[in-house]
Amino acid sequence: MNTPCIDLHVHSTASDGTFTPSKLIKLAKENNLQAIALTDHDSIDGLAEASNESAKQNIEFVPGIELSTDHNGKELHVVGLYIDPTNKQLNDNLITFVNERDSRNAKMCELLQKEGFDITMEKLLAFAGTGVLTRAHFANYLVDHGYVKNIKAVFHEYLGNDCRCFVDRTLIKTTNAIHLIKQAGGVAILAHPGLYSYGDDKMRNALTEFKAAGLDGLEAIYSTYTPADERYFKGLAKEYDLLISGGSDFHGTNKPDIKLGTGKGSMFISYEILQTIKNYHNRRH
Question: Where is the Polymerase/histidinol phosphatase N-terminal domain (predicted)?
Answer without folding.
Answer: 6-71
